[in-house]
Amino acid sequence: MRKIGINEIDYIALGSTVLGTGGGGDPYIGKLLAKEAIKKYGKVNLMAAEELSDDALVVPVAAFGAPTILVEKLFSGDEFIQAFEMMESYLGRKIDAVMPAEAGGLNGVIPFSVAAQKGIPLVDADGMGRAFPRLEMVTFTLHDIPVSPIAQADEKGNKNIYHTIDNVWGETLVGATTIQMGGSCAIGCYPMNGAQVKKAAIHGIVSYAQVLGEAILDAKKNKQNPVDALMQKAAAIKLFTGKVSSVKTIIDGRWNKGVCEVLGLDEDNGSLLKIDFQNEFLMAFKDDVPIAMTPDLIVLIDAENAQPITAESIQFGTRVIVMGMKSDPQWRTDAGIVLGGPEKFGYQEQYIPIEELNNQK
């Protein structure tokens, strides 16, 4: 267990945005809420999953909705506490620790606000090791852990508790209500005991996000190029270098869907990269040939400073580097590929690991 203060939040937010692979929400408002809570209530204890007692009650807390909406319709911060307290009331016992549901930008840091206000630890783990667009797309589902009960709250004071027949129905029903709430809300979900967290979660993800953030922000101090520093720490594969030439986006329910085209530069001159996204980057095609696919991570960064670019913030003309990262081994199982692979999103392609697509180990 170690203390997380205001300084660490900047690193964790940035690294979480890298891991968010285009999704997970802009971290700005999450950083403000986390820093304000830490300033007021004190530093947060970050604990390893292995430190949990088997009967501890752990609840992931997250922002839920379309990333574009999350930028335009700001959270008050109270809705996360309301969702947390609803869950405690419904379960009839104290929650011992919170954790991120995903390692996305906003959702990588929002739980720190709740942990600080409630004076409880935050578990160094999540359910994705990245970000995914649907509520059932977590490693908890792979271990038959139910999403319900789900606590939902918005900034206006509306609150709901859901019990759904399976995790897909959790996405369906909470997603429908979220649209009526204006496109975003706070949720608590997947209540687990410590033994389940140890078995089902992806461990060490918050610390990993901090390492990635440090690589970018401390590169100059360490006399390194931030792009090189990030790629080294992330064990990433450089997929493409170019300039954003086109972005087409539609908002479909609570999802940003679209295609980003990158015109090749330097060693990729004359080639065209297309990245499909649904909140998160899902598929990358170089000259119409797949070079990366979900559940592996496709990360878009600014070529000058290695700042990660979210799907809703892509701008025409930006010089970018596209890099790929291996997904957690849980996603590379047969069940993981069914839950988070290309066919889940309607693609014809069958999953091929990113290192095989790019002839690397």
Describe the fold and architecture.
The protein has about 350 residues and is an alpha+beta fold. The strands form 4 sheets. The chain has a 7-stranded antiparallel beta sheet. Strands 3, 4, 7, 8, 9 and 10 form a 6-stranded mixed beta sheet that branches. A 3-stranded mixed beta sheet has the order 1-2-5. The chain folds into 2 domains: about 1-205, CV3147-like domain (CV3147-like fold); about 235-355, Beta Barrel (CV3147-like), CATH 2.40.390. Strand 13 (about 255-265) and strand 14 (about 270-280) form a beta hairpin. The mean pLDDT is about 95. It has helices at about 5-20, 30-40, 65-70, 80-90, 110-120, 140, 165-180, 195-200, 205-215, 225-235, 335-340, 355; strands at about 1-5, 45, 55-65, 95-100, 120-125, 125, 150-155, 160, 185-190, 190-195, 200-205, 235-250, 255-265, 270-280, 280-285, 290-295, 295-300, 320-325. It is built from 12 helices and 18 strands. About 30% of the residues lie in helices and about 25% in strands. It is globular.
Assigned CATH architecture of the largest domain: 3-Layer(aba) Sandwich
Number of helices: 12
> What would the average pLDDT be, to the nearest integer?
94
H-E string = EHHEEHHEHEEHEEHEEHEHHEEEEEEEHH
**Largest β sheet strand count, sense and barrel closure:** 7 strands, antiparallel
Low-confidence stretches are none
Number of strands: 18
Shape: globular
Cross-sheet strand order for the largest sheet: 16-15-14-13-12-18-17
Secondary structure category:
alpha+beta
Distance between the termini: 34 Å
CATH topology of the largest domain: CV3147-like fold
Please give the CATH class of the largest domain.
Answer: Alpha Beta
Rounded radius of gyration (Å): 19 Å
Helicity range: 25-40%
How much beta, percentage-wise? 25-35%
Number of domains: 2
Superfamily (CATH H level) name of the largest domain:
CV3147-like domain
Domain S-Me-THD N-terminal: 8-162
Domain S-Me-THD-like C-terminal: 166-354
Organism: Croceitalea marina
Pfam families: S-Me-THD_C, S-Me-THD_N
